[in-house]
Each structure stands twice: as C-alpha cells, then as structure tokens.
C-alpha cells in the first residue's frame, strides 16, 4: 500500500514539472528622455535668434588712382553706361554728360578705377513713402580719406529728380559733391531747385532690382556717416549686417558711346509739370521726416 502511495506522489510531481512556466512580464519600451523636447526647443530658439550674416566682403580695386583723385580726371564721352553687380541683383545706369558735365566726368572716372567695388547702399528710405537709396562712401578708410574733400564744381540743374534718376548727394551746397550718389525711388522733383543735378538714369528694367535693395535700416546708418568714413565696411558689417553692397561697377563697354541715345535725349530736360511743382526748402529731407533730418546729403567736409 505504501508503495502505491509513493508512486502516485512521484507521478504527480512529474506532471507538475512538465507544466509551462509562468511567463515573465514583458519589459516596457524605454521612455524618451525628459530633456529631449526641451533640448529641441532650445536649439530651434537659438537658430531663430541668430544674427544675420553680413554680405561680403568683395574684392576691392587696386587702381592707383584710388589713392590720388587727380589721377582720375578724364573727360567722359557724351554718353556712357555703368553696370552695377550687387547683392540685390544687377542693373545698369546711362549717363548723359550734357545734363551735368562735372558730375558725369566724376562718375565715369569712379567707375573706370573701380571705386564702387564693395561699397554699401548705406541709406535706403521707403517710409513713410519711397524716397531714395544712397551709396558712395568707400569701404576702405584709407581710400575714403583721399576723396572726402575732392569736391566738384557745381553743375546747372537741367534734369529732374524723378524715379530712376541718379544724382550726387551734397553737404549743403552744390560745390560739396564728391563721391556719394543717390537713386530716386519716386518723383522727388522738389529737389531740383535745391541744386541737386541729375546725371544718369537707371536703364529699364533696372529699377526692379533697385527696389529690392535692403531698406530696413532707413536713416539709421546715414546718421553715422562720420563713423563710416573712419571705420569703413568693418563698422557697417558689424552694426548693419543686412545692408546690400555693390560687388563691382564697371563701364559697360570700357569707353562709353559716342552720342546720346534717343531715350536719353528725350528725358534730358524736366517736364513742365515737374518744374512747376518743384518748391525751394531750407534743407532737403525725406518726405514725412522732420526738417532737421538729413536729406540726400554727404558728410560735410567743411
């Protein structure tokens, strides 16, 4: 009897040993680290707030006349064109010497020696309404210092400062013109009787490019013209990194054309309506800006 009982116990134990073991709980998938989202947000925020990178620098001309304005006094042809390659795109201007002989000679020589290479459009005013974009302070102070007092004799105003016309800036009077120019964004014929003599005109469809020149800084860089003269592009690229620049400006055919084109001759004189609407003012100022604010002015050298 005892033998049978022992046999049953052993048999029951063997059955128990053959049962499938209880499965172990599955390991949970690792949870993402709590810092992942925060890290991503931090990275995105940092990227979004990074300062814009300044354009350039671009190669400067090494022409010897950059250090001596007396070496750049050739007489310009009757008409000539200058092609500007800029960070906003390319455009061309056509200059007519009969409009303003002294100014035309200066632009011709500046283009021929590469003066405008790596030069900033440091002032672009579009608010409260489109006004003008200004350039012409050399980016290298060692060049700029030779041209600050290289002033031109006055030119009689024969054209009108309408949209697309290119004119010299000046420091209060027509005999203070040197190297700074501005392009009219709109009809600024009120400047005509102040002595601002247009010299060239942007060739169609070039104003589509000129309109794209960065204008977000408005008048601010112009208020530091003295610093720009002393520190050059180093200052502009640090303080106003979004400015657009002239990469190169060259005479389109090397010499210019022998005679004015029909389109240039047709627009040489201001229209009667423009002349009638021009009114004298104490100082040229951007439309909608207080009279104390500078207009298309170059740094005074007197």
UniProtKB/TrEMBL annotation:
Residues 30-55, 256-302 have a biased composition (Low complexity). Keywords: Isomerase, Rotamase, Signal. Residues 1-16 form the signal peptide. Residues 85-215 form the PPIase cyclophilin-type domain. Its EC number is 5.2.1.8. GO terms for molecular function: peptidyl-prolyl cis-trans isomerase activity. InterPro entries: Cyclophilin-like_dom_sf, Cyclophilin-type_PPIase_dom, E_coli_cyclophilin_A-like. Residues 20-74, 253-302 are annotated as: Disordered. This is peptidylprolyl isomerase. It comes from Chondromyces apiculatus DSM 436.
């Amino acid at each position: 009897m005892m033998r049978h009982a022992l046999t049953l116990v052993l048999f029951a134990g063997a059955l128990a040993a053959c049962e499938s073991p209880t499965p172990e709980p599955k390991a949970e998938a690792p949870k993402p680290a709590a810092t992942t989202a925060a890290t991503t947000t931090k990275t995105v925020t940092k990227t979004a707030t990074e300062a814009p990178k300044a354009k350039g620098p671009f190669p400067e001309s090494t022409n010897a006349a950059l250090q001596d304005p007396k070496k750049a006094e050739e007489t310009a042809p009757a008409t000539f064109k200058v092609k500007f390659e800029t960070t906003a795109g390319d455009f061309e201007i056509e200059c007519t010497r009969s409009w303003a002989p002294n100014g035309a000679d200066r632009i011709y020589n500046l283009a021929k020696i590469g003066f405008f290479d790596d030069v900033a459009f440091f002032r672009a005013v579009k608010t409260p309404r489109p006004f003008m974009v200004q350039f012409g302070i050399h980016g290298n102070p060692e060049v700029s210092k030779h041209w600050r007092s290289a002033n031109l004799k006055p030119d009689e105003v024969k054209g009108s400062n309408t949209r697309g016309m290119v004119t010299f800036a000046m420091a209060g009077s027509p005999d203070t013109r040197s190297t700074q120019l501005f392009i009219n964004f709109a009809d600024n014929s009120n400047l005509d009787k102040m002595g601002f003599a247009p010299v060239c005109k942007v060739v169609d469809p070039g104003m589509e490019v000129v309109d794209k020149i960065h204008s977000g800084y408005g008048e601010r860089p112009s208020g530091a013209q003295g610093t720009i003269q002393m520190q050059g592009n180093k200052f502009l690229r640090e303080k106003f990194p979004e400015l657009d620049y002239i990469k190169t400006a060259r005479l389109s055919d090397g010499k210019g054309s022998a005679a004015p084109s029909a389109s240039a001759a047709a627009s040489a004189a201001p229209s009667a309506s423009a002349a009638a609407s021009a009114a004298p003012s104490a100082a040229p100022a951007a439309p909608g800006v207080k009279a104390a604010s500078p207009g298309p002015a170059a740094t005074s050298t007197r």
